[in-house]
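Re: folding output
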Amino acid sequence: MRAKRLFPSDRLVHRAVDLVLSFAVPRSAACIGALMDAATKDEMVQRSGICSLGHLAKHGGVAWRGATNTAVNRILRALQQHKGSAALQASGLWALGRLAERLEAPGGGMQDAAQRAKQLHPDSALVQRHADELIAFLLRP
């Protein structure tokens, strides 16, 4: 990504970066997902995977082709599995927000997850903030 900023008008550089990202991002997301699938009951593994997927979302667009739905579903599963963890709920809502905003991920299930987290963690300012931001993004015109 830095190469694109250093060479803003060089189309070959942009294509090369996109090619590398289209190779690396889906494979990284798949490896993260495999770890999440192998340890669904381990809160720390799930939270780490969620944060990693959220950070990977900065490489939006073509790099995520075909991997977005799976990432969203894994995050939603973790949110459902670990309802009692405010930290995981906040991380999950943040990651869903990044996927929705940067990758135009399908919002199915996101609003319900945000509402559920708000109800389960009324004293967590972080959960409330990320839930409100996600819901506002999903409801925008």
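--- second protein (sequence, then structure) ---
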Amino acid sequence: HFSRIKASDLLLIDANDPATLSGPNAPDPTAWGLHGAIHRNVPHARCVMHVHSIHATVLASLADSRLPPIDQNSA
């Protein structure tokens, strides 16, 4: 669970080093696809993270995860 993360669980990686994905501490390739691109294109970023809100997690877990536009603000 994320509430138990320690500093030693975090990875320090070089977005410009192709060997990043081949080492024993390689990041998840799908996460690296998102985070690596941000680090390469926004070099002043000190930390990049994304979170999974409870609502998005529930929606993604449904058999039919489509969210129909039910009002003018959701389309």
